[in-house]
Amino acid sequence: MSRLMLRRMGFLMLTLVLTSVIIFSITQFLPGDVARVLLPRDASEEAIRAKREALGLNRPAVVQYVSWLGRFARGDWGTSYAWNESIRPRVFDALRNSLMLAGVALLFSLPLSLGLGVWAGLREHRFADHVISVISLSVVGLPEFVTGVLLIGWLAHDLRWLPATSSIRAGTGFGEAFRFLILPGLTATLVLLAYLARLTRAEVIEQLRRPYVRTAVLKGLSWPAVVMRHVLRNALLPTVTVIAISFSWLIGGLIVIENVFNYPGLGRLLLTAIENHDTPLIQAVSMVVVTGVVLANLSADLLYGMLNPRIRYD
Fold first, then answer.
1. How does pLDDT run across 26-78, given as a tens digit for each residue?
2. Residue 206 sits in the same domain as residue 245
3. Are residues 133 and 9 in the same domain?
4. pLDDT confidence of residue 88
5. Is residue 314 part of a domain?
């Protein structure tokens, strides 16, 4: 396992370095001039040149990249152009909010998706299987903003059970923020529901057709024991990877949902940074999201060995 960790950590570092090159290169080709965006419209060319020099934008791209990556690795993520304040605390606040939303979404989606997938797999081609398939695919076919608006109209305006907006103050605790996270969490759950449920269903059906299931039944094991001890353990292996990818998507990919509910997470912060041409903030948020994706996939690899003892890492 230690050799696996060393290989994975090396791969993680290489991935982050290559990604940093891509992120930095993309931000260099964004339309518009940062200095012109930050200065008034009637600013002179001399003032624009002075601003570019103050920001270091007149240096060669390679020098800018090495300087940025070195400062970023040391924890100095720069100053936001839009807010003129340190980037790191703002990114960590947004990351904390995104993690809370991701946790609520997984809390809702995992039991529901896995439960429906197992139930449908155990009743292949029966009425329950068809109902679960039709409902889940119908829900996931709706775009996130449509699902969010419908939930706001029903649960917030008609029934008045939940707040229509999820705009929370900085530093709000999970307990206080939970009621504001339910609607965006449900919206994200409906996005993940069909994919996770269908994948679980397919894996359960495949495992039920394996010879070891027939052998376990012939040995006298009860059907619930066969399903719980053997079928589910093997059926969940591919689902672990999908859950890890889904978690990384939840961290930074909920731009639409966060904007529908006015939720201050990483996705909304990234969109705001792009609108303001805030290059250092774009780079910092992108690196945090990529790091989350890599760590989530590393966690999935390690969980494989825990779920299936036959898998050995040399």
1. 888 777 777 777 777 777 778 888 888 887 778 888 888 998 889 888 888 98
2. yes
3. no
4. 92
5. no
